[in-house]
Design goal:
mainly alpha
Amino acid sequence: MIARSFLILATILTISGCSIFGSKPVEIVSKPIKIDIIQPQLPRPIDLQEPKFYVVSEAVIANPCKRSIPFEPPKFNEAGEEQLKRPKECALEDRENPEWPVGYTYFDRFLDDMKALNNGDVLFVASTVKDYELMSGNFQELRRYIRELGEVIVYYRDVTINDEPAVGAQVQKK
């Protein structure tokens, strides 16, 4: 009989879930948890190099004669004309640049300079004025995009880093 009483008591306790002893109220608390977010490394600064553009015309280069009479003091000939000016005509060897032939143009000088720089090879790349303006606008658009991207990165760093101020990437012009 004791065994039977014990069995009934164990069954009642199992079924009731120990509710005879009372229940403890459940307390729900929500509080923010700091999440460690790995910050991406900022992009390296952009290092833009300045291209060189050559504008060349077919105008003849002035190759004046060498001065044969100094400017100071003024000198006059027998007719009373001042002798301070270069002669109107002179031989090629009496000019400031005797290696330039008669009729030597800026285009000729450009070709000679480029041949000297490039072992005798010359290559031309041409563009219209409208295309050049388009290229200039594209560069400005690229600069704008990079600046805005830097601002976005600084914003997210400010949002996720509480202790230290964020530093953005800057475009430096050399």
